[in-house]
């Protein structure tokens, strides 16, 4: 009985700390890592993580793959991005993906990484949304910039694919298909992924 009490107490302590290591579920959940912060002079607001479905919060999970650590695997159907670790584990992030007609899949590599990037809408987007013409030479970085706090630029054999892994101020878009094809993460999550991923890393979009 005493052993059971110790185990239950340890499990409760882990949950209260914002992570869980019980059973077959996630090995660690970073629910407490979405608070307000200052980053490169920008005041990132707190994400109301209690409003984000639990499965889309950053967490370490068991993930078997033949891909080497450092690889990024994007599951557009489930709205998850996996950063492969060793020993059959991965960091899993909730993502937003391209809406109908803007989906894509394939293999690319991270060619560039940028903190607080400038966003330049493509010509095709400006044609669809003429109000974006004012940003044809680039929208300055900031809290309302669609690329958010970080962007990683994906290139394939043909060069720049036009697709990005990037942050977004629209935390409530995570888990939905509503972008123009890019893979978006919550700003606090893209900062975490940016710090883990290296230029040259393989990115597989399923």
TrEMBL record:
Q: Name one Pfam family in it.
A: YkuD
**Entry-linked InterPro entries:** LD-transpeptidase, LD_TPept_cat_dom, Transpep_catalytic_dom
Per the database record, which ranges form the L,D-TPase catalytic domain? 70-206
State which pathway it belongs to.
Cell wall biogenesis; peptidoglycan biosynthesis
Which PROSITE patterns does the entry mention?
A: LD_TPASE, PROKAR_LIPOPROTEIN
Family label: Belongs to the YkuD family.
Which protein is depicted?
L,D-transpeptidase
Recorded source organism is Ollibium composti
């Amino acid at each position: 009985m005493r052993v059971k009490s110790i185990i239950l107490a340890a499990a409760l302590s882990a949950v209260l700390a914002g992570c869980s290591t019980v059973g077959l579920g996630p090995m660690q959940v970073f629910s407490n890592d979405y608070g307000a912060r200052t980053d490169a002079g920008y005041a990132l607001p707190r994400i109301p993580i209690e409003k984000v479905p639990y499965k889309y919060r950053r967490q370490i999970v068991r993930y078997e793959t033949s891909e080497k650590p450092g690889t990024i695997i994007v599951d557009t159907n489930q709205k998850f991005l996996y950063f492969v670790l060793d020993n059959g584990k991965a960091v899993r992030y909730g993502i937003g993906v391209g809406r109908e007609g803007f989906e894509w899949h394939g293999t690319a590599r991270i060619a560039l990484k940028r903190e607080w990037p400038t966003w330049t809408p493509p010509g095709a987007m400006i044609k669809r949304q003429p109000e974006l013409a004012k940003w044809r030479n680039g929208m300055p970085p900031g809290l309302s910039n669609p690329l958010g706090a970080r962007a990683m630029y994906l290139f394939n054999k043909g060069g720049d694919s036009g697709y990005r892994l990037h942050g977004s101020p629209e935390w409530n878009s995570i888990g939905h298909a509503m972008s123009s094809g890019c893979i978006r993460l919550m700003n606090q999550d893209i900062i975490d992924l940016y710090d883990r991923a290296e230029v040259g890393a393989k990115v597989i979009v399923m």
